[in-house]
Amino acid sequence: MSLGSGEHHAGPSELEDICRTIVRSVGPSGSNIEYALLLADTLHKQAPHAPDDHVFEVERRVLELCNSTGAWKDVLVKMGYKQICWYFHS
């Protein structure tokens, strides 16, 4: 659980800023995109009765940013997002 402090805590941010930070950031365990999308996927599967609108909006916007820029295509394909372009343009 985050206490909202520490040297890497970004503090309060707008959704767009959060998503852009996720798309451009990488940590010791991999891209932040993987972390954010795996978190959302786990919540979809394990807690469908308790949706987290903020996490799901971050998921949607991160995927949109990746789709529009072509960023992290290899990571997204590895995670199963093989047809991301069709997902957002259908």
From TrEMBL:
Coiled coil: none annotated. One of its GO terms (biological process) is glutathione catabolic process. One of its GO terms (cellular component) is cytoplasm. The keyword Lyase applies. It is an enzyme of class 4 (lyase). Its EC number is 4.3.2.7. GO terms for molecular function: glutathione specific gamma-glutamylcyclotransferase activity. The keyword Lyase applies. Keywords: Lyase. Catalyzes the cleavage of glutathione into 5-oxo-L-proline and a Cys-Gly dipeptide. Acts specifically on glutathione, but not on other gamma-glutamyl peptides. This is glutathione-specific gamma-glutamylcyclotransferase. It comes from Ancylostoma duodenale.
